[in-house]
Amino acid sequence: MCWQHREAETADTNMDITKGRQVLPKNVKPLHYDLTLEPNLETFKYEGTVSIELDVIEDTKSISLNTVDLEILETKVSAGGTVISSSPKVSYDMDSQTTKVEFDEVIPAGSKATLFHKFTGVLNDNMAGFYRSSYKTESGELKYMATTQMEPTDARRAFPCFDEPALKAEFTVTLIADDNMTCLSNMDVSGEKQVNSKMAGHKRKAVSFNKTPLMSTYLLAFIVGELKVLETHNFRVPVRVFATPDKNIDHGKFSVDLAARTLAFYEKEFDCEYPLPKMDMVAIPDFSAGAMENWGLVTYRVVDLLLDEKTASASTKERVAEVVQHELAHQWFGNIVTMDFWDGLWLNEGFATWMSWYSCNKFYPEWKVWEGYVTDNLQSALNLDSLRSSHPIEVPVKRADEINQIFDAISYSKGSCVIRMVSKHLGEDVFMEGIRRYIKKHKYGNTTTGDLWAALSDASGKDVERIADIWTKNIGHPVVSVTEDEKNNTIHVKQNRFLRTADVKPEEDEVLYPVFLGLRTKSGVDEEVTLNGREGSFKVPDLDFFKVNADHSGIYRTSYTPARLEKLGENAKAGLLTVEDRAGMIADAGALTAAGYNKTSGLLSLLKGFDAEPEFVVWGEITARISALRSAWIFEDDKVKTALKAFQRDLVSSTSHKLGWTFSDNDGHIEQQFKALMFSNAANAGDEKTQAAAFEMFEKFIAGDRSALHPNLRGGVYAAVLSNGGEKEYNAVVKEYETSTTADERNTALRALGRARQPELIKRTLAYSLSKEVKEQDIYLPLSGLRAHREGIEAFWAWMKLNWETLTKKLPPSLGLLGSTITMATSGFTHNDQLHDIEEFFKSKSTKGFDRNLQQSTDAIRAKTGWIERDAADVEAWLKANKYL
Ligand code: BES
Ligand code: ZN
């Protein structure tokens, strides 16, 4: 269709489809919403009225706005202070999720108008819009609260609105509820009065909140429920944590203190006051994502906000800190300055991800979080981005149902990698100065990626757009191949598109990135060397030692010759490489091996040489790469699988035995995680000592000695006893799940269930995930463990096919949770016939809402098929030569 055609068509539809986006017509612009909502926690319906003040941009005879699953009872249009239509024509378009209001009188451009709706809706069970969430009281009574999740496009489920991030307005909210309820919204309370409630048949309170600053609809929130509170005055404005009465509110202490300190820190870093009069953070029993940055009213999964330091592992504590600091970063980056449209989502999520690392590093330097960045965000980014079905960081999203799917490792992790690369290139201080200018300039406005680069250029005097734009506009990343010329002391480097499936077509390999080579030699790191074209040669002081991509701040893989890789292994032992270098180099070798750039035997030898590695983060990458290999070989011959397991056992056991599995107060944050990692890897590889220890601790623990099983080891021990035990252990872990009181303990137990392999127990795990014991938000937890064994992978997929209807009812495709469950159910396969079976199943179904997940999953299977075909014999030969076969 030619574009003129499209323009012509726009006139008749509810939508404006310029730029290919399905957006609202631009004839009016919202200025202020006066919104009143009254939820009924018995019928789970709610009633509402909204009065929207509008700026009329063009002569107007119709107004379109977003609604989903709302019943509009009454509509009035006013202009110049008088009602011009009290029964306008109201029609609905399902596809564009819009209600269109048409009237006879023309409201002239330049005037103000008001649109009034009275409506009702249902407090749904889908964790989207205005929804209900439940909890059990101590006496076992099921109780409900009402809460919201608007991002990305579900504010339209809660009330009629102009639901686009650029249509910022002010909001005055009133909530009507019984007197014993806590009512919360983005702002502080302006007043409370008693009103006659027709709905309740008795008097109720109407709680009004002060008018918000200019803000986007997706950041709005309101909550009604019986809540407990914890408050601190350590910050300029009150900071509070809320939870339902079944939770221990004291577990909010860590987060509330951290939040107060973080807000103070961010005010300084951004040189901009937190503009709201309070910060509330609420633990919601049913929550689809991890947390949501609603302005002044941040909502969380219980496990990501409440922390019991006595029963939580070190990694859980780090996760809570990450989530809190991430959401608070959004209060500036996202809430004060907002992306113009969803194709700029990465600005929000990439930055908040980077900022949470930046602030965590300032608050807890001993955690050394930047070391872990290389094995965490950098690997997630490169992993997903090595698939043909990846997408550019700035991705065009046209329709609401496409938006949920881009909350992925590209927007978050690759986005944050670009930020990290740019901040290292400019220097963190200069970078933060650019961020301050960006916030000052665009306060209460909307931006595109170019605005960020402009502010950073302004602060640095460098052309940031030139080096950064290419990374956000294009799909994929390069592999840089390094060869050496000994005679001339030079290295030759060449960049090509990297695909895990090893089948790059010439037309997919046209983008040439400015690659910062970060050349590490004995004389330090040369940050200036940049590869600007396809290939180039660079002098190195001494070929005896060099490494490219120092600390892995560049977004690419480096492919060395086998001899150089071996040499780098020795350099690592000799202490010439940083933790980031070692972990990153192993990750690159692993990824390149899986894609056929080098032989798996070379990777195995490299890993073998790391047996004396002293650092946690590096071991994290070593074990991840062995797991990736074992997973790719999971449907292969048992003999080879057993041999690979034995290799892992040899590699990890001695370090695990050396570190031990007892904990003392002297153990640092990293050491605790190190012990846990090595223990679970040794046990998982069949090491007798750790397995025996696992069973011993478990026995004592379930017999009532809670101190016998340290929180850091719980996940590893559950996995070990369920993989090797039977029904008795299974029942005990189920009991742990059902009787533990903290969300962290419960999740650890639930997550482990899938590890059990006996057919009967696999059946129980599958059935349990859909039982009433497991909330929709957690369905994926018991299922996730099934991916650890072939019986589980097969049973999970067979079960998904059989239970498709039930599953999609519980997890609607428009929600992110279904997509990730599909990824889990399918990505474990490795063979062509399995791939065909998956494709066959979905052929007859609409894949709207999870088509990206599916493509990525099938791509990942193809990559593994190729890896096995290429290297099955090579792996066997290496295992034989090393006496494992
Ligand atoms: N804005 C997101 C929440 C979100 C995610 C809304 C997906 C809609 C769809 C929030 O800021 C976020 O990124 N939360 C993360 C946690 C964070 C620490 C990475 C999450 O939910 O996992
Ligand atoms: Zn976020």
TrEMBL record:
Pfam families: ERAP1_C (PF11838), Peptidase_M1 (PF01433), Peptidase_M1_N (PF17900). Residues 545-863 form the ERAP1-like C-terminal domain. GO terms for cellular component: cytoplasm; membrane. Its EC number is 3.4.11.-. Transmembrane segments: none annotated. Residues 254-471 form the Peptidase M1 membrane alanine aminopeptidase domain. Its cofactor is Zn(2+). GO terms for biological process: peptide catabolic process; proteolysis. The keyword Repressor does not apply. Gene3D superfamilies: 1.25.50.20, 2.60.40.1910, Neutral Protease Domain 2, tricorn interacting facor f3 domain. InterPro entries: Aminopeptidase_N-like_N, Aminopeptidase_N-like_N_sf, ERAP1-like_C_dom, M1_APN-typ, Peptidase_M1, Peptidase_M1_aminopeptidases, Peptidase_M1_dom, Peptidase_M4/M1_CTD_sf. Belongs to the peptidase M1 family. This is Aminopeptidase. The lineage of its organism: Eukaryota, Fungi, Dikarya, Ascomycota, Pezizomycotina.
